[in-house]
Amino acid sequence: MRKFCFFVVAVLCGKDLFGCTGILIQAKNNTIVNGRTVEFGVPLDINLAVIPRNFSFTGKTPLGDGKSYKAKYAAVGIYGFDDVVLMDGMNEKGLVAGAFYFSGYANYVQVTKKNQGKALSPADFTNWILTQFASLAEVKEALQTVIIAPTVLNGWGPTPPPMHYIVYDKTGRSIVIEPLNGALKVYDNHLGAMSNSPTFDWQVTNLSNYMNLTPLNAAPQKLRNVSLAPFGQGTGMIGLPGDFTPPSRFVRASFFSTTAAPVANSDEAVDQTFHILNQFDIPKGIVREEEGKMVGYDYTLFTSVKNPETLEYFYRSYDNQTIQFIDLRQFDLNAPTIKKMKVQGKQKKTDASSLLK
Questions:
Q1: Are 111 and 152 in contact (CB under 8 A)?
Q2: Averaged pLDDT for residues 207-217
């Protein structure tokens, strides 16, 4: 299966068959929750892990070992294939970071013997943030000490996976980090929304095309003597793009997350975040790419929601829609080893017939 997946990725790696969507929800008590979907063009080997403090890591580069660092903070999240570095997760300080595909735009720094010691792979970068920092200010300040190297990673295909990144703190502030023109460009993200290509600033500018959108229904109109009335609810969102392209998903993510009905606390915000992310769930077969006889389906393999207040990492998968969670507070954060497991299992259907008897 691994060889087949690698072959499909190799064939389709130049295609935009990788999409993810991120949102942030703020509750009435000012607690925040953020969540995202994970889409991929082939089955992705997703694993869960809890990384303890003081665990040592070494970045990967095309020339060999890169930047070495030791975990200052424990973290929980997911990693892909056999590379146990978190590409989406939350640390014990409530800092959240995630990698999103950035096809056609990611531009990494060429590695030399001179800069190899500060280099991280596209997968290492998120793990480095989660294990080293407690605030956005610390992240911003430290970016000058690292580079992202164009590193081919096991399972991701024959080319370096193009990524950009979002980081949230527990107050709801957020930044986006994009590797552009040999540097790490940082944007303040006041919306908390995220998708894929093109660049984040373009995505925000594009929202001006949809300033008419509102959750309020449109009022009846009269043209001369002709009365026009809405067919039903939802007229304020006429014109909302409904396709699965990154710009359309960014528009929906921005408007859905910022206009949703307020909820009381972070626990309710977790439920609301999952409900909103349902709007971005891609069934297998709706989005596909063909290359000869090979077909790649972009679909939602995984959805995660993080609650920085309770340090709970919620998730569900394509095969199991039951919401599960890992509570970071239940682990020994000074443990000597990483705890890990595969995201697996089929959803169990519950027979409710007896409730009617």
A1: no
A2: 95
List, for residues 289-303, the tens digit of each pLDDT value: 888 888 778 889 999
Q: Which residue has the higher pLDDT, 193 or 344?
A: 193
Catalytic residue among 13, 20, 46, 253: 20
* CATH 3.60.15.10 holds for 2-356: no
8 A C-beta contact, residue 289 and residue 298: yes
- Burial level of 4, CB count in 10 A (0-12/13-18/19+)? exposed
43-69 pLDDT tens trace? 788 999 999 999 999 999 999 999 999
Q: What angle do CA 278, 283, 285 make, to 5 degrees?
A: 160
Residue among 175, 57, 47, 195 nearest 127 (CA): 57
Instruction: Delimit the domains of the chain by residue range.
Output: 2-356
What is residue 36's DSSP assignment?
E
Residue in the structure block whose two tokens are 């959750």: 215
Query: Cα separation of 103 and 121, whole Å?
Result: 16
24's tokens: 């942030």
Active-site annotation holds for 20: yes
